[in-house]
Each structure stands twice: as C-alpha cells, then as structure tokens.
Amino acid sequence: MCAMHTIFVRDTGEAFQCHDGESLLLGMARIGRKCIPVGCLNGGCGVCKVAIRSGTVCKSGAMSRAHVSEQEEAQGIVLACRVQPTGAVELEVLGKMKKAFSM
C-alpha cells in the first residue's frame, strides 16, 4: 500500500489526499476536486502553476521553462502536473485561472 499525503490549498481552504507517485494535479482530479486549475495535464500550458509554501515535492517530469523559470522552481514555484508530494504540502495557486479563486 502506498503512502498518502495531505495537500492543503490556501486559496480555497480545501485539502485532499494524494498518493505517493501521483502528481498533485492527478491526486486532486482523482477525487473530483477543482481547487487547482486543470489544463493540458502534461506540463505545456502552465495553467496549474502553484507555489509550494510548505512541505516537499519531487519532479515527475520536465518543467516547462516557458511557464516556470529555473529561479522560480528554486523558490518552490512548480506545475502541479509535474510534481509529486513526498509529505504533507501546503500550496497557493498561481496559474492563469487564479482570478476565479480570488473574488
């Protein structure tokens, strides 16, 4: 059985569980939540851009430099479709659809 990690989204106050080896975005989508914007699911559109505020993640694929610079990535800004949690994570949504959560 794989470990589960709690993911907390500051923008909406929602939390969900994500499996080891599962991207943050797929973990959210698996349970029908919509707290992180979903686009292409493969790192190309940048819609799921988030800032990791606490906890750690590991990369599961290439991070599009068109959407996340090396400097941003070093500061914890990543694409939710390209990272997997290694423990509990708290994040903020930065993607293109952020306005929907800020009203």
CATH class: Alpha Beta
Strand content: 25-35%
Q: Specify the helix fraction band.
A: 10-25%
Write out the CATH superfamily name: Beta-grasp domain
Task: Write the CATH fold name.
Answer: Ubiquitin-like (UB roll)
Structural class of the helices, strands and pairings? alpha+beta
Number of helices in the DSSP assignment: 3
Q: What would you report as the Rg, rounded to the nearest angstrom?
A: 12 Å
Biggest sheet features: 5 strands, mixed
- Stretches where pLDDT is under 50 for at least 5 consecutive residues are 98-103
How many structural domains are formed by the residues?
Answer: 1
- CATH architect. name: Roll
Total strands = 7
**N-to-C terminal Cα separation, in Å?**
40 Å
Q: Biggest sheet, strands in spatial order?
A: 2-1-7-3-5
Anisotropy-based shape = globular
> What is the N-to-C order of secondary-structure elements (H for helix, E for strand)?
EEHEEHEEEH
Mean pLDDT: 88
Describe this structure in words.
With 103 residues, the protein is an alpha+beta fold. The protein has one domain (4-94): Beta-grasp domain (Ubiquitin-like (UB roll), Roll), CATH 3.10.20. The chain has helices spanning 24-30, 70-74, 99-102, and strands at 4-9, 14-19, 49-54, 57-59, 77-79, 83-85, 89-93. The strands form two sheets. It has a five-stranded mixed sheet. The protein has a two-stranded antiparallel ribbon with strand order 4-6. A hairpin with a 4-residue loop joins strand 1 and strand 2. The longest helix has 7 residues, at 24-30. The chain is globular, with a radius of gyration of 12 Å. 33% of the residues are buried. Mean pLDDT is 88; it is low at 98-103.
